């Protein structure tokens, strides 16, 4: 499918949007994750039927979109509001469209927020390695109770300073494990060979991230609790730390079908995430860890499953697909399985989003 890029001002933010397929085709809305852009979907889009109307925006602060500030006190709502505003853009969607919504990683959280805020606009949801409905970091159990009142050990203070500096500098080397290319190869996927000829495209996508206190990673607040920092009020990692949608997701009406795809070798979103400071403390990587009673690693997978089980009990339905040996990017690592699951979801709706 040939991709075209449009520039749209919606929700007061200038957004770059990649578009393929006929405007009256079955709509699919792709929301990318952290430290990437809509270009991260390109390898997937090439595999999709030309009859689909595929819309993939660059979120604020990524790709070619405006680096508008992120208000972290709203969780991921700034991002969700931007995407919601695109639904009424006639150059992107036919009037009354209800897309199948696909969200990867942070974009999975944006998709959950969008579903909660606009349930009548969404036909189905595919969550790919999504952030937990209880945010990222500093929660201790399946019901999302915080390890400390100030969510110490999550947010912008958890970012690796060398990675942020190399990201801002546009570093394309492999000279350090914290270089963006090294992180792409070791954390975004489990088997770097899957990147193939798309590695430079995907690295460009990662390097498009706007850095700073208003974007990635955000501002840092000191804390009396281990490890000495807590989320601030600005920027992406603080928005992820403060994201909470579990109760609203369970209660949402109507409840479109949800497919949850994840890799069992994911090191980012996992019950033993190597990006969770509590897990790194348990491994002895971060000193001073207060132990499993006070600061256990976040059970991210268990939390998502528990919330989706409640979603099903409340009248919805979901399907969990765990891909063996797959890392954090199922659409890159297991494209055939990913496309099959997406098309199954797409086939359940008509052009206007009404279930068959």
Describe it.
- With 356 residues, the chain is α/β, with parallel strands linked by helices.
- The chain has a single domain (4-346), classed as Alpha/Beta hydrolase fold, catalytic domain (Rossmann fold, 3-Layer(aba) Sandwich), CATH 3.40.50.1820.
- The chain has helices at residues 42-45, 77-86, 106-117, 161-169, 180-188, 199-207, 236-242, 246-251, 277-282, 300-313, 330-333, 335-346, and strands at 4-10, 13-20, 26-31, 52-57, 100-104, 124-128, 211-212, 216-217, 220-222, 229-231, 258-263, 318-323.
- It has an eight-stranded mixed β-sheet, sandwiched between helices. Strands 7-8 form a two-stranded parallel sheet.
- β1 (4-10) and β2 (13-20) form a beta hairpin.
- The longest helix has 14 residues, at 300-313.
- It is globular and about 55 Å long.
- The protein starts with a strand and ends in a 10-residue tail after the last helix.
- Mean pLDDT is 96; it is low at 351-356.
